[in-house]
Amino acid sequence: MKTTVEQRGLAPVRSVLDNGARVIAKHAGATPAVTIHASFEAGTIFDPPAEPGVSHFVSRTIDRGTAAYTAEEIAERLENRGISLAITVNRHALSLICTCLVEDLDSTLMTLADVVTRPAFPDPEVETRRGEIVTMIRQDEDNPAAMASEGLLSLLYGDVHPYGRRPRGSVETVERITPSSLQTFHAARFRPGALSLVMVGDVEPARAIDSAARVFGAWTAAPAAAPILPVAPPAPGRRVRIIPMMNKAQADIAYGFTTILRSDPAFYAYWLMNNILGEYSIGGRLGDSIRERQGMAYYVYSALDANVAPGPLLIRAGVNPANVERALASIDEEVARMANDGPTGQELAESRQYLIGSLPRRLETNVGIATFLQMMEFFDLGMDFDLRVPDLLARVTREDVHAAARAVLDPSKAAVVVAGPYRGPANHRTSDPSNA
Amino acid sequence: MYPEGATYNANVNVYEEVLDNGLRVLVQEVRTAPLASVWCWYRVGSKDEGPGMTGVSHWVEHMNFKGTTNIPRDKVKGIIEQFGGYWNGYTWIDQTTYTETATRDALDRMLFIESERMANCLYDPADCESERTVIISELQGGENDPDQLLDQELTATAFRAHPYRHPTIGWLGDLQTMTRDDLYGYYRRHYVPNNATLVIVGDVDRREAMRHVVQRFGAIEPGEVPKVPHTREPEQLGERRVTVSREATTAYLKVAYHAPSVNEPNFFPLLVLDAVLTGAKGLNLWASFRTPPPQRSARLYRALVDGGVASAVNGGLVPTEQPFLYTISVTATEGSSLASVEDATLAQLDAVRRHGITEHELEKAKNQLRARLVFEGDSISNIAHQLGYFETIASWRMVSSLRERIDAVTLQHAGEAAAQCFKTTNRTVGWFDPQPPADEGAAPEGEGAGSGPVSVRRP
Question: What is the ipTM of this complex?
Answer without folding.
Answer: 0.92
